[in-house]
Amino acid sequence: MELPFVPYRIKVVEPVRRVSREERAAALAKAGYNVFGLPSSSIYVDLLTDSGTSAMSDAQWGALVQGDEAYAGSRNYYDFEETIRDIFGYRHVIPTHQGRVAENLLFTTRLDKRSVVPNNIHFDTTRANVEHQGALALDCVIDEGLDPTGEHPFKGDMSLAKLAEAFDRYGDRIPFVMITITNNSGGGQPVSLANIREVSAFCHGRGVPLIFDACRFAENAWFIKRREPGYGDRSIKEIAREIFALGDGCTMSAKKDALVNMGGFLCLNDDDWARDITNLLILIEGFRTYGGLAGRDLAAVAQGLREVLDDDYLTYRIGQVRRMGEQMQARGVPILTPVGGHAVYVDARRLLPHLPQSAFPAQAFTCALYLEGGVRGVEIGSLMFAHADPETGRTVHPAMELVRLAVPRRVYTETHLAYVAEVCGRLRECGERLRGLEIVEEAPVLRHFTARLRPLGGGSLIAD
Ligand SMILES: *Cc1c(COP(=O)(O)O)cnc(C)c1O
Questions:
Q1: 86 within a domain of the structure (yes/no)
Q2: How many Å apart are CA 297 and CA 199, to the nearest integer?
Q3: What is the residue with the minimal CA distance to atom 11 of ligand 1?
């Protein structure tokens, strides 16, 4: 067996405590069968998200001490701006405290009730922020991107046919098009440069800007380097630059590929758009040289962006995720393939065919993972996305019922991830003993964060 090259070693550790099954059962009931309600101190391996959960490097921690906390014109802002311009290439660099604020600023200033925004697949906060403006969030990923087992190398690609159809139907109601790299809600699947080039030409042919949701741009670039003909010898940075040169701006959650615990930014070429957004930024986040972040946070983002471009780092990181997926497959757990960049997605419809979508199979598996193994994942299925059809009022379920196991960057060892695969294998053997769930309480938007549920028919989640 060829062992992977691990491009870092451990310098600081965070203790993890052992939690019994009884404690976990009580914690889960108290949380209303919603893992967002669990205290992290009761979790062994936390794969809820790869967002803001990275381990920072010694150089990033060092940069924190060098924060220039000037209200205006912090030297960390200039370094942040220069580092981002060097990779992304856009004229205006606007810091925000996380990605959804970048989205909110863009959507508040550019959308109205008539607007329609196509994307390969909108991430949940992106969709919610578009809909918050009364606008329509349209998903245009290729059909292969909705097939949980097809072996297409770039399942995040946008369908040009679906995009053209959207333009035929909505025309001037489309103020810009977005592409999410990698496609988080579609399984962390990459988008090819060939596709980005085509979408870019299509949009620009109609005078419509192309905006990237760039959260995992470095992971996407790594897949292009490995899978797309002609890019094997190019550096991650060169590929990233080629991607961004095809667009007109981006929103970014620095909590992903900038390897920090908090931060984000928005980049734009258009002076008028940037001016409107900067005015709103000052109202809700802060002055344009800090945007809701401390000077030291800007320094950590800049350093993280330099580190994430390292091919050895990306090879290990994406390899870690893939190896966990392979171990799950070896135990007969159905997962979305090929494995994406930041997470393994368990296909709950195939794993729990006895549960209809109305019984929240992916949420049931998410809860069972915690109950059995102290592992926290997140449901990306009906709890997150089912909604009432505005015309008929009937519930529309999403195409897939997934449980996302997102791997934090530079945090867990191979042993932790092998353990997760083992727990998934054990749960598969529970089969029909695993019960579905029903909602007891829910909020009107983004309900998956706060909803309370209970096992159907009362009693325990896993029948004896
Ligand atoms: C995380 C994420 C966001 C939102 O960023 P936050 O920093 O969590 O606000 C937007 N789009 C995608 C694809 C994401 O993964």
A1: yes
A2: 34
A3: 123
10 domain residue, yes or no: no
Type of residue numbered 54 = S
> Is this structure's pTM higher than 0.90?
yes
Q: What is the dihedral of CA 448, 453, 457, 460, to 10 degrees?
A: 110
Say if ligand 1 is within 6 A of residue 213 CB.
yes
Give residue 1's pLDDT.
Answer: 65
Range 77-85 average pLDDT: 98
Residue 9 has phi, psi (to 5 degrees) of -130, 165
Over residues 5-18, the mean pLDDT reads 95
- Are 153 and 299 in a shared domain? yes
Same domain, 289 and 364: no
The response to whether residue 51 sits with its C-beta less than 6 Å from ligand 1 reads yes
Domain that holds residue 281: 58-307
Locate the ligand 1 atom nearest the alpha carbon of residue 183 and give its number. Answer: 13
Asked if residues 212 and 174 have their Cβ atoms less than 8 Å apart, the reply is no
Q: Is 189 in the pocket of ligand 1 (CB under 6 A)?
A: no
Q: Assess whether 319 and 360 both reside in one domain.
A: yes
Sign of the alpha-carbon torsion through 449, 155, 323, 56:
negative
Q: Which two tokens stand for residue 407?
A: 């791997």
Report the CATH number at residue 349: 3.90.1150.10
Relative to beta strand 249-253, strand 210-213 is parallel
CB of residue 255 inside a 6 A radius of ligand 1 = yes
Q: Do 289 and 191 belong together in one domain?
A: yes
Tokens of 332: 């007969």
Instruction: List, for residues 238-293, the tens digit of each pLDDT value.
Output: 999 999 999 999 999 999 999 999 999 999 999 999 999 999 999 999 999 999 99
The Cα–Cα gap between 404 and 424 comes to 12
CA distance 420 to 401: 19
Instruction: Identify whether residues 225 and 141 lie together within a single domain.
Output: yes
Place of tokens 């209303």: 32
Total domains present in the chain? 2
Do 168 and 262 reside in the same domain of the chain?
A: yes
Kindly state the tokens that stand for 153: 């190398």
Q: Choose one of 307, 334, 366: the last residue of a domain.
A: 307
The CATH number of whichever domain residue 237 belongs to comes to 3.40.640.10
Give the number of the atom of ligand 1 that is nearest the alpha carbon of residue 98: 7
d(CA 448, CA 52): 19
